[in-house]
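Hi P.,

Sorry for the delay on this. The queue was packed all week, but I finally got your sequence through. Input first:
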Amino acid sequence: MTGKTHRMIEWIVSDGLTDFRTAEAWMEARVAAIHEGQANECIWLVEHPPLYTAGTSAKAHDLTDPDRFDVFPTRRGGQYTYHGPGQRVAYVMLDVSKRGRDVRKFVKQLEDWVILTLGQFNVTGEIREGRVGVWVTRPEKPQTTAGNPAEDKVAAIGIRLRKWISYHGISLNVEPDLTHFEGIVPCGITEHGVTSLVDLGLPVTMADVDLALRSSFPQVFGDIPQTHVR
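Then the structure:
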């Protein structure tokens, strides 16, 4: 946790599917307003129509089916990822300058947030050195070529900072169409798969996940979101 200093954090949940460029423009405007002291920090939960995004480290050969969905270059870190219905995207607009100016610590906090959220559904999420995101072990699947247990990615993380205000954030697979990931090499990783909470056998709804994200947030960041807007 970050200590005893509590900040006003707005918590927004958007119904339906949000256009990606509209979301990006909204985030950029909100980041500027937070930096200028004209708006509160914000967590924004959305779903997008099916699309691929390319982070600043994306490699062209990892886009294996470029005609499948719209592809959006972005300024966030990371490589290619998929967004679509059934996936909860949490855009995180927080002032990292007031949280220690430690980018690695901040990313670790985002990972911990996801792991605590998964834990509410008795899912053990883990991080792996050299692999971005949050992973789950799949002992029921064949081992890897190296003889290690199979692992699937359940959540992706990619952020950008502007004047120490974060934006973009995390995406947690609740019940997306997992075949939609086949048009890319997710985050440039070929030897592991992708899963979701429903794929893991959990009858979880988006509303369940939203409640878990909200209740886990203060355990990591020390701040309780004060406003819930639909």
